[in-house]
Amino acid sequence: MRDPLTNRIMTARVLLAVALAASFLSSPVLATTRLSADVQPKKIAINENATLRVVLESEGKSLPEPQLPPITDFQVFSSGRNQSITFVNGRLSSSVTHTYVLSPRSAGRFTIGPVHVQIGGVGYATPPMILTVSGTAGPVPSLAAPPAPGGRQDERAAARGSKRHVFITASLDKDTVYVNEPVTYIFRFYNAERLLSSPDYSRPSFTNFWVEDLPPQRKFSTVVDGVAYDVTEIRTALFPTDAGEKTIPAAEVKATVRSLQRPNPQDPFSVFQDPFFGGFGQGEDLHLATDALRLTVRPLPPVSAPLEATGLVGKFSIAAHTDVHSVNVGDPVTVSVTVSGEGNIKSIPSPQVDTIPSVRSFAGGTSEDVGTADYRVQGKKTFDQVFVPQRPGRFDVPSFALTYFDPTRRAYQTARTDSIPITVTGAAADFTIPSFKLAPGQISDLAADVRFLKTDSDHLRRAEDAGLFGSAFWAGHVFPLLGLSVLLGWRRRTLKEAADPVGRKRRRAYRAAVAQLQTVVSALAGPSSGGAVEAVHHALLNYYTDRFNCPAQGQTRAEMRATLKLERIAPAAMAQYFELLDDCDRRRYAPGQDGAEAAELATRARSVLEALETAS
Amino acid sequence: MKRGFHVGLIRFRHWSPVFLALMFMITPRPAHAQEPSRLFDESVSAYQRGLFDSAASGFLRLAQGGIDDPRVWYNLGNAHFKSGRIGSALVSYRRGLRLQPRDADLRANYRYVRLFAADKIEPVGGFFLETWWRALVDRIAFHEARALAAMIFWLAVVLTAWRLWPGPIPIRPVATWVVTLAWILWVGATGTTATCYFRDIGSRDGAVIALKTDVRGGPGGEYALQFVAHDGLEGTVERSESGWYLARFPNGLKGWIDARAFEII
């Protein structure tokens, strides 16, 4: 039998294992992420390039950039990134292809990789790849210098403008283009000197252009004004986004070359600055800049109906393909429409398709593949269109059309696909549920149709009847709360008085005495006036008893005076009070009282009591 | 007598605003019975003859004319569905369910039409208490919750008045507990009412009503395409900008969608 501590540890381990297993199984990234890399060709010559493609497929829309291993034996150029996103049946997945051009620095057998990526805390890596570079130069189409786009004159002008045998040029392959028509920006670095550091190239800001790099760099030799230069050429494809006169700012290069300054013969260490010792010579920083370039961008001509403007410029073809030609009612037919050609591939819009009666259609995913072979932007973009037939019979997937502007013909062209016949079998339904969309738990919800209409039109409810918080609502809440508040106040007062009978008598003494006096006056108006003076006397003594919480009966005048003095009653009011009491005593026992005297006493008593109230 | 009348007149002048307010509350409103009923019957007739677009147009006119009746929303949902507009049908059913959340026909048709949405989304699961609370509140209409809260309020007020009334109360200890319980019930009913209110009025749930539409990374066509959404995909608008909605979908994805392609309930 285990002790409790061991049991707890075992339980914790089991729970941890279950949690880890659950998190492992529930991780969608882990289950679906794929990373692969391939380099082609596997064997190249020293003057050739290889292409490295890294493909990352995973769920989600934003995938991280793969991390390339250090590749020191090659110059590495990014040749673009293609991403396709699909969102079908609620699942979003992406596939990103990164393409790199590898230009060898030396011959040998090299190991490349592995390429790493990290998604959701999980790391992925590709196997390493082998690339062999032979020392023998491969066939070169032309080692002669390609003609400078700006002409030899530009080269010479640039060469003469530089103090050193290092200069740069920039040019465009066209000076007039249409909006979204590609134009190639060509940058060249001419060097006939020994560089002490790698030149630092700053590309101009291509504002108002879509930009596509055209790797790899080209290297060749040329002679300008009798000097042999090594030339490095970098090309960039530009697609103007709007019409007008455009200016492309200057490109810049910073480089360090060996200084021409002669060593100081007096300096004993100047011998080390001699090139013979290599590397110790003084460097001279060069800051080179090209001229700004001008480009005229024409607007596209207006599109005449029934063509639809897409803004696409270049030369394109379109093809549609499906593997399915016979389906049941409700089953999907996926048609892949591929637009391929030369131009701004990324801006290709989805082709237009006409609607088909009794067939629901919706767009699927898209994917694109952009290449830069021969320094031209070309490739293809594929659109998936899903058709779901609702009735049996035959329907034709209609022709897909794409309108683009061909700058060589200076006219709009429309590429079309052929229609594709599809045979549909099965029973008809207004909207048959496509079986591929159903989750297992939803089968129980299947029905033939929606439930029928509600036909009763009596007492249709108006929107204002359903007012949220109308005046009745607030009145119904405010009035009861007010009533409760009043009740609460009354209750508090009642309880307070019940808890303090003396105080209650004190507060009511004046009102009680005045009420008694009023009774006397009312009685005098009637037939019987007997005992009125006695009643006034009682009212005065009762006031004293209640107001000052002292029984008047049995107290002497002196004791009463002392009590009033303690209560800080003004002497004048006190004197009036006792004088009236004396009068009452006198008249009570005097014969022949009449009503007028009693009324006068009552009036005096009221004013005396008032004086006592105000004097206290 | 004359003085009594004078005093009465003065009292009436003091209380006249209250009397007028009460009179306004209890005065019956003018009836608009004929015109909406006729349009409703015509739309039903169009639906029965298979003229679903015409029927949808009629029911929509009723709704736009101020009729907020679950039967209208239910029939409009059916007409939209028969015309092939999945998203609009779902929005109509949801509007009807606000008013009559336990209506079996509305619930059945809503569930049925959801099957036709092209994009099936697995909703992100929430905390079980939240899920339970939502399921409970989804079966209560706002006006029902409000009426229940008002009734409990009156009951609590009457019980409180009975408890506060000066004088002996036969079952005083029990009375205190009964009053406390009544006010706790009222707080619960008020919370339910508030939840229903924000569900119906504050919520910006809706559905995609275009056959397909791009969901982008920002409020404009120039932003990167995130994915394509199709007719009937339901979501919640978090904010709007320049004619675009930032919509959140049940599986947690977010993106900007053209406001013309998305209808808020």
Q: What fold name goes in the CATH topology slot of the largest domain in chain B?
A: Serine Threonine Protein Phosphatase 5, Tetratricopeptide repeat
Write down the CATH class of the largest domain in chain B. Answer: Mainly Alpha
Distance between the termini of chain A: 91 Å
Give the proportion of residues in helices of chain B: 55-70%
**What's the CATH C level of the largest domain in chain A?**
Mainly Beta
CATH fold-type name of the largest domain in chain A: Immunoglobulin-like
Spatial extent as radius of gyration of chain B: 25 Å
Based on CA atoms alone, the radius of gyration of chain A comes out at 53 Å
- The average pLDDT score of chain A comes to 77
Protein chains sharing the most extensive interface? A-B, 58 and 67 residues
Total strands of chain A: the figure is: 28
What's the name of the CATH homologous superfamily of the largest domain in chain B?
Answer: Tetratricopeptide repeat domain
How would a textbook summarize the main sheet of chain B? 7 strands, antiparallel
Identify the overall geometry of chain B: globular
